[in-house]
């Protein structure tokens, strides 16, 4: 039981910031592509 709680806390504590970083990187790449598309 304790191990399960620890695993969930670690998943949320580590997983959410990593996911946010990946989403931010993806959005920045998308913005760059949109700018490049607008310039053409």
Please give the radius of gyration in angstroms.
Answer: 17 Å
Largest sheet: none
- Report low-confidence residues grouped into runs of 5 or more: none
Assembly state (oligomeric): single chain
User: Helix amount, in percent?
Assistant: over 70%
Shape annotation:
rod-shaped
Coarse structural class: mainly alpha
Order of helices and strands: H
Based on DSSP secondary structure assignment, what is the total number of beta strands? Answer: 0
Mean pLDDT level: 90
SS summary, helix count: 1
Strand % is under 5%
- Supply the number of structural domains: 1
How far the N terminus sits from the C terminus, by CA atoms, comes to 58 Å
Please outline the helices and strands.
Blueprint: H1 2-39
Outline the structure in words.
The structure is a single chain. With 40 residues, the protein is an all-alpha fold. It has one domain (1-40). It has one helix and no strands. The protein is rod-shaped and about 55 Å long. It starts with a helix and ends with a helix.
Key terms:
single chain, mainly alpha, 1 helix
Task: Kindly summarize this structure in a few lines.
By secondary structure, the protein is mainly α. Helices cover 95% and strands 0% of the residues.
């Amino acid at each position: 039981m304790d191990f399960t709680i620890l695993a969930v806390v670690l998943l949320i504590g580590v997983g959410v910031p990593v996911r946010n970083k990946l989403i931010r990187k993806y959005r920045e790449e998308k913005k760059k592509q949109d700018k490049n598309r607008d310039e053409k």
